[in-house]
Amino acid sequence: MIPELGHFALILALAVALVQGTLPLVGASRGDLRLMALGRTAALTQAFLVLLAFGALTQAYVTSDFSVLNVVDNSHSAKPLLYKISGVWGNHEGSMLLWALILALFGAAVAIFGANLPDTLRSRVLAIQALIGVGFLAFLLFTSNPFARVYPAPPDGNGLNPLLQDPGLAFHPPLLYLGYVGFSVTYAFAIAALLEGRVDAAWARWVRPWALAAWCFLTLGIALGSWWAYYILGWGGFWFWDPVENASLMPWLAGTALLHSAIVVEKRDALKSWTVLLALLAFSLSLLGTFLVRSGVLTSVHAFAQDPARGMFILAFLLFVTGGGLALYAWRAPQLQGGGLFQPVSREGALILNNLLLCTLAATVLLGTLYPLFLDLLTGNKVSVGPPFFNATFVPLCAPLFAALCVGPFLGWKRAELWPALMRLRVALVVSLAAIVVAMTMIDSRSTLAALAFGFGVWLIVGSLAALSDRVRSGTLRTIPRSTLGMVISHAALGFVVLGSVATSSWNTELMHTMKPGDRVDFAGYSVLLDRMDEVRGPNYVAERATLNVSVGGKPYTVLQPERRLFTVQRRQVAETAIQTNGLRDFYATLGEGNPQQGWVIRLYLNPLAPWIWLGAALCALGGFVSLSDRRLRIGAPSRRPSSLQPAE
Amino acid sequence: MTPKRRRLWLLLGSLATLGVAATLVLTALNDNLVFFYSPTQVAEKSLGPERRFRLGGLVEQGSVQKDGQTVRFTVTDTHKTVKVVYRGILPDLFREGQGVIAEGSIGPDGVFMAREILAKHDENYMPPEVAKALKESGQWKDKK
User: Fold this and answer.
1) Which of A311, A420, A640, B97 is spaced 20 to 30 Å from A51 by Cα?
2) What is the nearest CA distance from B128 to chain A, expressed in angstroms?
3) Which residues lie closer than 8 Å to B138 by C-beta, 6 or more apart?
4) What is the ipTM metric for this complex?
């Protein structure tokens, strides 16, 4: 009964979305206030209905209702509650329902928090949001119904993919989707602005919080996914340039560019049409990511479903959203006249450089991700573009971005001098150069590139702090705007990510050894003893657990217990890594296959600064949230001025 | 500065960035493309030890021999086979009769030396390349 209610709620939601996607648009163009007011009610109703549907599916999972096909395929009665709930979105249908839910919730959020928006803009934004919703709800109902029943109901389910039964991955999809779908709001704002033919400082100030929120969630989602890959895939890497990782990185890069260019629109009334274009691109790339993941066109670890009908649907939708957006842009953007003038060396100039480089980075990733697809279509050759490609293109392009990143905040608007800015950064410059020298002489003399990259990481941290201390000198910490504080935190956090990635990938130590209980091995100054092997029983798995006693200089240091879990339902083994961290490095151990006669294969890693990667990513998102709490954005009710800003010259 | 000059600056800057990016991308694509071959294709082409590629197919039943950290097995597309040697911990989903992708190169003794065995998240998941190779050799069985 409840699954049918969920199904019915979903159908109603589609009907409501159709109304919300059309009538307010008509109202906005005719100036009919009643039709425009409809958008708000419809958005709230739609969110409620999709929430109901999602609740119904969750209920089916929690109570293990095996008359629902989706539950049978992806759940099992012996699974812990957390994974029963996360199983809701651990499959194709459920994850699309989650997408639709977040989309509807964002629509409701615009309806609630958008009280200060002009009526026409708000109703247009809500209508566009609803039209996207129509696409996804129709996709769910016509190709991927999560509520399909199965008769007769099997006694138990097939269980969730054991690799997904992990706390990190339980929250990875919701966070990632909050990011992806958050960009639908900026997309809707961009389309609404094009329809109105008007982009100004007020528009930018309304859009920025949404872009910022989406960006923060996307940052957290990517970081969580990377952390998961780090400890579950068991070879110490944290980023594999897998197509799916790239799919989430591209909207992140475009979104980062959007955040920065929106500042220029808000402060200087320039870069308008470019910002609108970025808003269109960020969401299009999010959809592209969904298409790549859901259609299974690319060899990827995440490809759940390889159903051509689903792939075609998303592809058509992607073409409609991107193509429609770009066509509207081509038609209306020339009307958006730029405002403030500026010199190449200025805050605006630095932000343009930022945008240029971020977009080039996104294009590089896009090319590397889609190239195998094109080559296959054109020549039939199967190729893969792996980490070497991205290391050779992405990393060098980051260098100018990082170099300019610390200088930008020291440049004034309109026109600035480069030399005084560099003088104020001299401490950071000296410290970074010293870091390069130290890295080259003391840590590793072989890799000059790693040392340089290390220097860039230090430069980002010290340079960002220099911007902070500069502001403090001209006031107190309390008077600094939250948005500035957020910027400093996020910029410095990027430095931590760089330091962590460089140190882990360049200076890690690795050892693989076959051991029997009682064996001892020396590893990077530690002595590791395989104390014993145990059989352990979990809720839905049995595991072999190795107990490794690690000692330094004869003194016990720590105990690591990596496991190999055999999930009984799926008959699948999953290695559970053991990691001991002291904040500066990870001691990382995985257990391979083995038996008492020949011993077990044990792999040990020492990953310097690895925790900083995720610490940095979390700080990066924190900076975004701090900036989001800025009073100006919260009040955010700038009145629309009829005239543009004064020209600079 | 006039809008015209500003546009010129922007244009020059964009062109320079794109030029650098294009150069990087082209050289990187030249050097780092890894082709995917089935055992049949490996037999047709004579691939030297300097050529790194991906080998895909099924792990032949009964072919896996483990000796400490070294694993030897045979990859087949049911037409031809290639012997593979790999040192390291196998991914959790590695199993006889299942699809596998190995990256590496042919050694002097004609054995494929895998540097990496690719892990896939789902046991029902068949790499599209393997599926295609199996279809071409007429061994494809629809599961569902």
Assistant:
1) A311
2) 7
3) none
4) 0.74
Q: Which residues of A touch B128 (CB under 8 A)?
A: 296, 299, 306
Rounded Cα distance, A367 and A17, in Å: 35
Interface check for B65 against chain A (CB to CB < 8 A): the answer is: no
Residues in chain A: 649
Cα-flanking dihedrals φ and ψ of residue A219, to 5°?
-55, -50
Q: Give buried/exposed letters for B53-64 (b at 16+ CB in 10 A, else e).
A: bbbbbbbbeebb
Sign of CA dihedral B25, B31, B34, B40: positive
Q: Which residue, chain included where needed, has tokens 């049995």?
A: A542
Average pLDDT over residues A511-522: 90
CA distance A133 to A12: 12
A269: left (phi over 0), alpha (psi -120 to 50) or beta: left
Q: Do A598 and B68 touch (CB under 8 A)?
A: yes
Q: Do B92 and A593 touch (CB under 8 A)?
A: no
Query: Searching chain B, which residue's CA lies closest to the CA of residue A414?
Result: B1
Express each pLDDT in A134-156 by its tens digit: 999 999 999 889 998 888 888 88
Write out pLDDT tens, residues A344-391: 788 888 998 999 999 999 999 999 888 888 887 787 777 778 788 888
C-alpha closest to that of A275 among A331, A194, A195, A344: A194
Contact A299 B128 (CB under 8 A): yes
